[in-house]
Design brief:
heterotrimer; A: about 80 residues; mainly alpha; 2 helices; elongated; B: about 300 residues; 11 helices; about 75% helix
Chain lengths: ~80, ~300, ~170
Amino acid sequence: MPDERGHLQRSLQMFQDNVRRAGPAAAGSYALIGAVILFGAIGYAADAWQGTAPRFLLGGLALGLVVGFYELARSVWPR
Amino acid sequence: MAFQEHAAGAAGATAEKFDAGRTIIEHVSNSPLEHPLIHVPSVAGIDFSVTKHVLMLWIVAALVGAVVTAVVRRYLKQDRPIPSGFMNALEAIVEYVRDVIVQPNVGRKWANTWTPLVLTLFIFILCANAMGLVPIFEVVGVLDHWVLHTGPDSFAKRLLHGGTTATANFNVTAALATITFFAIIVAGTKAHGFVKHWKNLVPHGLAPLLYIILVPIELLGLLVRPFALTMRLAANMTGGHIAILAILSFVFMFAELFGHAIAGIGVGLAVSVPLAVGISALEIIVILVQAYVFSLLTAVFIGMAIHVHH
Amino acid sequence: MNNPLVQPDPGLFIWTIVTFLVLVAVLAKFAWGPLLKMLDSRHETIRRSLDDAEQARVELERLQGQSIEIVRQARIEAEAIISASRTDAGRLREEMRQKAKAEADALVKSAERQIQLETTRALQQIRHEAVDLSVMIASKILQRNLSKEDNQRLIDETLQQVEAGRR
């Protein structure tokens, strides 16, 4: 019985460890997606407002990629 | 979740042809602004009406505030600080948040300054997430349907519209991320002064040309981080509920497809309910992890503003 | 933007911020603040009592070592005292024996000298008596009074003869 409990405890510890280590990495990946979506959406809204069909959307997506990769790089290689 | 079936059935299947998409959206989104729970006149073009998610926030906040304060007060009144019962768990959470989430990121000097904020974020988000798993309003719906028989626009009926998970609404998570956003600025300002904090955003001693590229990227990055927080929490909370509701929708879809309630109930018993139970169990982990990640990242960002590495 | 999932709702946004800030303020003031302070003070108490226990343990160890040292020292001292007194006693006994022997020797020697002296004196006396006696006898026999000087010479000659004869 104590062995079983130790096993469960170890598993939980492992899980928690993984989540903790994955947290910043998840921040980076989400920042990448988030940047693309955020700036893409801003570009889309600007297009809809100004009636300049794909320009702002494309620009926003490109900007999102740059900012997103920058954030990702920052979280992966902490200075 | 069985109650949700009833409610969905009451809302969809009996009235007209069952539209799974519309029903699911109904069940995870906020109650419509046109039919708020309590109507409040709008101020400066902003509608401050109390919708279902506002009510949920209030319920969670009142519950957390009252329970935590009462437990802590009673605990501190003892002459010997030995925790017991619920206080044990609360103290474990408090110590965990302080020693594992806040202190390694923020540092010993600022740990006690930022622990209350991160702790509140963690417990508030956790409880708001967990609230979504408890079908309280579906119970109200069943009571109303079978016992109370209130009118079509009664408070009880209005309570049924919309999902119960406030944190699945990106307006709510955006507000929480905004608090994180300002907390980062306040942390940097407190530690380094206002001007120095903004200067710390970009590394010192680079070629001037690089600054022209880096400064805008860093400023935009400032916006991206809270946006990522917003999206992750809302999307995760919405996703799980949509999955559960979609699986439960099979019951009605199959019932309609075969024109018989038995088919729907059979599919429900064989597939939908076990799957929904499994996903609900998974959701328990998800609500914990999302609350954890939100508070952890808040602590990480605050720590980044305080400890600037170059 | 008709999908209610992504419908912007500034009212909800502001309500959330207000609700959360109120919750943070209330909890920070009434729950987290006092609780964190208590946790810190308890942490301090535990650390201090552990330190105290450690200190007491070290002190106890030191005292134990000290007492062992004291006992060891006392034993050494006692042994030293015993052996010193043993040698002292031996020396004293030897001294006393020597002294007694010397005294006895001196006593014997003086007694011997006394005896010798007495003997010599007695012999001398006897000689004088004998001389006087023989003089008287001789004068009586000779009926003639020799002069005092003759007499003396005669005595001395006779004594020398006697002395020589005795040797």
